[in-house]
Amino acid sequence: MPLALLPHTASMKVVQSKYSGVAGFNRRHGGVVVDEQNENQQQERLRPAPIERFAGQSHVFDLNRVLGELRAEAHAAESGHRQVTIFHRVPVAKVLFAFDAGGALPKHSTHGLVTIHVLEGRFMVQADGNDHELHAGQILILNPDVPHDVRASEASAMLLTVHMESEK
What we know:
Number of strands: 11
Helix content: 10-25%
Structural class: mainly beta
Number of domains: 2
Radius of gyration: 18 Å
CATH topology of the largest domain: Jelly Rolls
CATH class of the largest domain: Mainly Beta
Strand content: 35-45%
CATH architecture of the largest domain: Sandwich
Number of helices: 3
Strand order of the largest sheet: 3-4-11-6-9
């Protein structure tokens, strides 16, 4: 597990699953109890499972280090970007994106308040009939359900925060 994604906590000792307590399914793995099915899924994952990444009471992330690890992943970037959810607890998700020059997220909307925080480079975001040119240090906040697209003018990085709205 990349160290930059480890939460700052000592409470990540046991992972429970639907198979916990079933003879033969639980196995100690580096101080963590993991069932065989989840262990096989873990081997197919690009990154640690969310239950591991989001465990604990406090979380410290070195965004520069996480970006370096994200950019160094062996698999090809899709649509010119890579992303990792660094934290998710309903109703909030934090997603780190690393874009290649020309990378894009096609037009979409999210049923939640969206904050795009530019960490590196430059982005063009079309939203609400406007083109927003954003550079490092700027943020754009979009109300729920606002269609938008994101395009990187150069190699860039952003931290996306989504505060999901409850379904009524």
